[in-house]
Amino acid sequence: MRESTFIKKNLPRWKKYQEEPTGDPDEMAERFTTLLDDLAYAKTFYSFSKVTGYINSLAAGIYQIIYANNKEESGRFRSFFVYELPLLFRKYHRLILFTFLFFLLFCLIAAFSAAHDETFVRGVMGDEYVNMTEQNIKRGDPFGVYKGENELYMFLRIAYNNIQVAFLCFIGGILFGVGSLWFMMKNGVMLGAFQYYFFSKGLGLKSVLVIWIHGTLEISSIVIAGSAGLIMASGLLFPGTRKRVDALKKSARDGVKVVISLVPLFITAAFLEGFVTRHTAMPMAVSISILLISLAFIISYFIVYPILLQRRGFRLDEKGKVIKPAK
């Protein structure tokens, strides 16, 4: 094909690419692929022609856009966990504190009730579980329940169950927060009765060293999931100057971000429960180390780090985007 014919045939398309840029990823990829074909042909037959340089510049321009988009997406992922999510937690610290205190209140109520009513623990935990645990205690293996299943199956089952509970805690917020508070009350009562039972058997310290290996991440995440539900409910209850539906949409987006961010924690907690907690005879130093590392992570990432970010001048705008301090 003569060079003039080649140019005449493709020039309208090249001008369109140049004058009408697109933001659609599929269209951009198609244009880039087509230009590469044109460039390969031009380099083969008109390697020293200006048209080769022209096509190359068009392809380079699209490549720069694609590369910039990929880089931006990568930076967006990092920014979400390093800045956006911690600042979101800082925004709702008071609500998270309220959820924790509400949960703790029912833990204490359950422990108090169990101390004054011998049937309370059985009513909460069920006769089957209590009878099985008492048999394990008589055999000298009070936490044998964690050894009864295959590690992988136990990990998958617990991870699925905990993630399901978290989303139920969140979805309960649509009922003006009542559903989320009910789940906090239910889980608080279960934990309080559960923990009191082992203390009443003289196994308090041992239960902490075994159960809280995974429980530190698991219980903290459930409380934060309940907070996510109350975050969504806050848009319904306190819309401010917005329309109630607009306030709900915004608070729901914030709640979704919070609850989705908990999924890795639930998976980690399930891994610990499935593969580590079963080793009830592990050295005390190992148990304490795992517990303290988990607790340190929760406190630092969800409480301390968000406060430090805010003090350094980072904040979220009305649309939830991170505003960094001026240098």
The strand order across the widest sheet is 1-2
Looking at how many chains there are and whether they match, the oligomeric state comes to single chain
Distance between the termini: 57 Å
One letter per element, helices H and strands E, the order comes to HHHHHHHHHHHHEE
For the secondary structure, the number of strands is 2
Share in helix: over 70%
Structural class: mainly alpha
Tell me the fraction of residues in β-strands, as a range. under 5%
Spatial extent as radius of gyration: 29 Å
Main sheet: strands, sense, barrel: 2 strands, antiparallel
Provide the residue-averaged pLDDT.
88
Q: How does the overall form come out from the CA principal axes?
A: elongated
Count the DSSP helices.
12
Low-confidence sequence ranges:
none
Tags for this entry?
327 residues; mainly alpha; two-stranded antiparallel sheet; 12 helices; 2 strands; elongated
Question: What does this protein look like?
Answer:
The chain has 12 helices and 2 strands, in the order ααααααααααααββ. With 327 residues, the protein is mostly helical. A two-stranded antiparallel sheet has the order 1-2. α7 packs parallel to α9, α8 runs antiparallel to α9 and α9 runs antiparallel to α11. 30% of the residues are buried.
How would you briefly describe this protein structure?
The protein is an all-alpha fold and 327 residues long. It has twelve helices and two strands; from the N terminus they run ααααααααααααββ. Helix 7 (151-171) packs antiparallel against helix 11 and helix 9 (204-237) packs antiparallel against helix 11.
